[in-house]
Amino acid sequence: MSFVRRLAAALLAAMLCCLASAGSPPTITGLSPTEGTMYGGTAVTLAGSGFTGAMGVYFGNIRATRFTVDSDTQITAIAPAQPPGTSVMFDIVTPTGGMVHPIGYFTYVVPPELRPTVTHISPARGPASGGTTVTFTGTNLANTHQVRFGNVAAGFTVVSDTQVTATTPASPAGMVSTELTTAYGIADGSFGTFFEYIPQPTITGVSPIEGSMFGGTAVTLAGGGFTGATSVHFGNVAAASFTVDSDTQITAIAPPQPLGTAVMFEVFTPDGGGMVHPIGYFTYVVPPELRPTLTSASPARVSAAGGTQVVLTGTNLAGASSLRFGGFPAASFTVDSSTRITATTLAVASPGFVTIDVTTPYGGADSPFGFEFVAAPTLTGVAPATANAAGGTTLVLSGSGFADATAVVLGGVAARAFTVESDSRITAIAPPHAAGPVAVEVSAPGGTATLASGVVFADLAVRGACGTATGQARPTPPAGASLCSAGQASSVASVQGEFSWTCAGQNGGADAPRCTAPWAAAGGTGSRATLDLPEAAVNNGWTLETASFQHTLPAPLPPGASTSHWPLHLRLTGGAAGSSARLTVHYSTPVPLGAVYLKHGPSPEGLQCSGTTCAQPHWYTLAPSAALFAADRRSVTLTLTDGGLGDSDDVPGQITDPGLPVLLAPPAGGGNGGGPASAVPVPALNPWAIALLALCFPALGHLRGTRQSLSKQ
Questions:
Q1: Are 640 and 572 in contact (CB under 8 A)?
Q2: Which one-letter DSSP state was computed for residue 148?
Q3: Pairing relationship of beta strands 447-458 and 386-388 according to DSSP bridges
Q4: pLDDT digits (tens, 9 = 90+) for 288-336
Q5: Would you state the pLDDT for residue 22?
Q6: What backbone torsions phi and psi does residue 61 show, to the nearest 5 degrees?
Q7: How many CB atoms sit inside 10 A of residue 539's CB?
């Protein structure tokens, strides 16, 4: 071995020798017991090592009363006094050192003879609303300074060292622990003793909410906690009887109480207690069979001036003590029977609808019907001012307060009839009466209104006479005041080339003879015509603005064509743009067989035109669908389309229509060697119609010489 190695070994040996001579610090590995009395004196055995030569043993920071080193691994120490509940660690001091050892705690406790205990509580259950007095029985309770139910402190009284009473606080339903704390700690057993909070009975609904003042109404209470209920109270009066149907329902029989009393309910149970529940009121009322009612008043409209006798009908009216009209007492009233009262009204300042109130021993009755005080009627005018002495004149009376008028009298004679049209207007038929001015009277619920010299009776017979419309030619029926210069016109009839009507006499006058006005002249041979348009509502809104038969053509007729008619110029307005209008032209003489209705103006392609020429005015034939002649040839029904077939202007919403019946020249090579080949056949004619037309031409050739040819004009 080298010198260096020998030196290192010698140094290590020396260090180990020094450490062995110094010793190890004490250690604690166990203790017994782990608790002792707060007064000290408990012998505690500490196990560990390094105890040899121990100079002191400490319980926390307090030195042991005394101690004995039993061996290097055990010490027996006597605990000093310390407050109860103190938990300490140990410190052993030796020549080699000392330190607090966290292994093992020693706790100071109250000695058993001083510890509080709870052995019994009574009662062990009570309502969740609190207020139950609970008695705790046990030992060492004199120093109690807190009582808790669950985590809620309660008021308490120390009765003796063995008894404490406490009042439970309110708590949710369920089990809670109890706890008594004294100067010497929590009473043994109290924390393990439980108190049960019982749900308090609750009421959530009541049905019915009213019943007879005499009691006996079965009332169903809905809620919870009703099991074992001991009583049910209507206000402060116990129910006549009750039945617990379930934990959530009780049926109770109401006791009698004064009329109008409104009560709340209270349900008592052995553990849940009871309290007044504000949910649901029960009101004592008069039973239906005794309640007074009003069903009618006659009359139902009376004068605001008072003094009207009114008969009231109803039920249970006997013993009525007061009767009021709109809050004001009746002038007087008499109870005729339990179903009838006769009352006299007082005057009221303000007319209008009011309620009638009757008070009886069993309550009041209000009128469910309308009852009205009305002002006296006024009569301000009569029109006309003159009436026929023979009677029958319709008079219009103006004023106010006419509703439910009962009579209209003229000069002491009742009107033949009258109608109340409104509160301010009456129409009456005058009776026969001697000539002269008379007073007019109107009687109504509010009184009687009189208008002196309201009407003058006179001989007003009028003979009917024709007006200025007679003899005036027109294309449409005449109307208005021009029909009759006297009397009333009848409706205007139109037949065989003339309009006719009559003018009826008035007030006993005779009728005029028949009045007539010819149709408008429609041709050079004396033919006349009239127009007939459907109402605008069924004719796409179209109405006739102007109509006339003119003696000149807008352009020469096609070659070879002839007519004895004058062109009809129409202007229709009011229709929707692009829609069609329908009208009928009636003639006093038949239109010749074979004649077509020729129109002048622009036309669709193919109607005697082609290309751009169609936009220029020209003669073209309307197809039968647009110009339909009647079987007797005395009328033709035209269907004209705005901006299209039959319309000669380009104004939307307006139709201008020049046209007339025309006999066209037969096709070239026809049987009569007639008109030029340029004449275009009518597109709408089928082969049979063309053949029929050809057969008619020889006969028509003879007539042509007698007609005026308008194509030369």
A1: yes
A2: E
A3: parallel
A4: 899 999 999 999 999 999 999 999 999 999 999 999 998 889 999 999 9
A5: 45
A6: -110, 15
A7: 18
3-state secondary structure of 360: strand
Which tokens sit at 138? 């046990």
| Residue 373, both tokens | 């005080």
Cβ pair 312, 343 in contact under 8 A = yes
Contact, 377 vs 441, CB < 8 A? Answer: no
Structure tokens at 666: 């037969």
CB contact burial 273-287 (16+ within 10 A = b; e otherwise): bbbebeebebebbbe
Tell me if 610 sits within 8 A of 630, measured CB to CB. no
Distance CA 44, CA 36 (A): 9
Phi, psi of 76, rounded to the nearest 5 degrees: -110, 120
How far is residue 27's CA from residue 695's CA, in Å, rounded to a whole number?
Answer: 156
Do the strands 596-601 and 528-532 form a parallel or antiparallel pair, or are they unpaired?
A: unpaired
User: What pLDDT sits at residue 711?
Assistant: 33
Peptide bond into 602 cis (omega under 30): no
pLDDT at position 178:
92
* pLDDT for the residue 675: 34
Q: Residue ranges of the chain with pLDDT lower than 50?
A: 1-22, 670-713
Q: Residue 577: phi, psi to the nearest 5? A: -55, 130
Cα of 700 vs its chain's centroid, Å? 78
- Tokens of residue 578, six digits: 């692009």
Q: Are 399 and 424 spatial neighbours (Cβ–Cβ below 8 Å)?
A: yes
Report which of 387, 362, 604, 618 is spatially closest to residue 506, judged by C-alpha positions: 387
| Pairing outcome for strands 56-59 and 87-93 | antiparallel
pLDDT at position 647, please? 86
Sequence-ordered list of residues with C-beta below 8 angstroms from that of 275, at least 6 positions apart, any chain? 129, 200, 266
Q: What was the pLDDT predicted at 370?
A: 86
Intra-chain end-to-end CA distance of the chain, in Å: 169
Query: Which residues lie below 8 Å from residue 81, measured CB to CB, with a gap of 6+?
Result: 38, 39, 40
**Spatial separation of the C-alpha atoms in residues 266 and 165, rounded to whole Å:** 28
E strands, 140-240, are 144-149, 152-153, 155-160, 163-167, 174-182, 185-186, 194-198, 202-207, 210-212, 218-224, 231-234, 237-238
Task: Report the length, in residues, of the chain.
Answer: 713
**Which helix H or strand E contains 13, and what residues bound it?**
helix 3-22
Q: Which helix (H) or strand (E) covers residue 20, if one does?
A: helix 3-22
How far apart CA 701 and CA 674 sit, in angstroms, is 9
Q: Provide the Cα torsion 273, 278, 279, 280; round to 10°.
A: 110
- Spatial CA neighbour of 256 closest among 294, 282, 281: 282
Contacts of 684 (CB under 8 A, 6+ apart): 621, 622, 623, 624, 625
Q: In the beta sheet, which residues pair with residue 449? A: 442
**Cα–Cα distance for residue pair 507/163, rounded to 1 Å:** 120
As given in the structure block, the two tokens for residue 524 are 């050079």
Q: Any residues with CB less than 8 A from the CB of 654 and at least 6 apart, and which?
A: 571, 572, 573, 642
